[in-house]
Design a protein that fits this description.
With 278 residues, this protein is α+β, with helices and mostly antiparallel strands. The protein has 8 helices and 11 strands. The radius of gyration is 18 Å and the shape is globular.
Length: 278
């Protein structure tokens, strides 16, 4: 396992850990993850999953994480988290695309990527592919991102049930990824957090074998590092055939946002999220 946690010496308003594991059935790990802590109230964490079965998936995922972290770190804080993150992900996409067209052996490489910044209690995210970002609040779990897969699009169009999609043989066929086109459409998300919120960012190797209610249960005890370990161990015990990556963020400190007054738009959307049955 490759593990990274935020040092207690930093005394941040949050607890953050990332952990990746090759799983039980793969010789190599095509997942990648990383984080950057900018201060006691600001952190970026990233998970990428190289496209399985294609040459260069492992290279693409590692490039995506490294370039996103580096570009964000070097960009002016005055731009704001959302703009810095968008620029970082677009640069990662361009560099992966250019590498793929100049190295014949890597011409089919690509990767998913989801990157999350929490700054001053507000979440900003950039998302391409099928890694998932979940929010756990008061014992309930909501998937915040939408999967960019052919099967997920059929579900959103009402052409397939969510139950059938969960076990569909083509459920991991991507409709969008980094590296295949010079410009990629990136989903951008922003929402307020409240004290006690827990975020889970994970690759499909984890959520394909653990249901949302199980993920939420495993997030409850202990800190972020313990939660990452528990999630990976549970998925491996279930016999996941894929690589596994989890990043857990816990909002320890108070935020400027009250749960009942964080903005009508997100109050309504979170109501729909928490009302779903997955």
């Amino acid at each position: 396992m490759a593990e990274s946690t935020v040092s207690d010496a930093a005394q941040p308003d949050f607890d953050l850990a990332v952990l990746s594991d090759v799983g039980t059935d793969r010789p190599d790990n095509e997942d990648a993850c990383g984080h950057f802590v900018e201060g006691p109230q600001a952190a970026l964490f990233v998970v990428a999953d190289g496209i399985g079965g294609y040459e260069g998936g492992e290279i693409a995922s590692r490039m995506a994480v490294a370039i996103t972290l580096e570009t964000y770190r070097e960009s002016p804080p005055a731009w704001g988290a959302a703009k810095r993150l968008q620029r970082a992900v677009q640069r990662a996409n361009i560099e992966i695309h250019n590498r793929a067209i100049t190295v014949p052996e890597l011409r089919r490489m690509g990767t998913t990527l989801t990157a999350v910044v929490v700054e001053g209690g507000r979440l900003s995210a950039a998302h391409v592919g099928d890694c998932r970002l979940y929010l756990a609040r008061r014992g309930r779990m909501a998937q915040i991102t939408k999967d960019h897969t052919v099967v997920a699009e059929r579900v959103r169009m009402g052409l397939m049930t969510a139950a059938r999609a969960r076990h569909h043989p083509e459920r991991s066929t991507l409709s969008r990824s980094l590296g295949h086109e010079l410009i990629v459409a990136v989903d951008r998300l922003s929402m307020p957090l409240v004290q006690g919120d827990r975020l889970l960012l994970c690759s499909d190797g984890l959520y394909n074998v653990l249901e949302a209610r199980e993920l939420e249960h495993l997030l409850r005890p202990g800190g972020a590092a313990a939660a990452c370990k528990a999630l990976i161990e549970a998925a491996n015990a279930r016999g996941s055939a894929d690589n596994l990556t989890a990043a857990v963020f816990i909002m320890r400190g108070a935020t400027p946002f009250a749960e009942g007054g964080a903005g009508m738009g997100w109050r309504a959307r979170l109501g729909r999220f928490f009302g779903r049955r997955r």
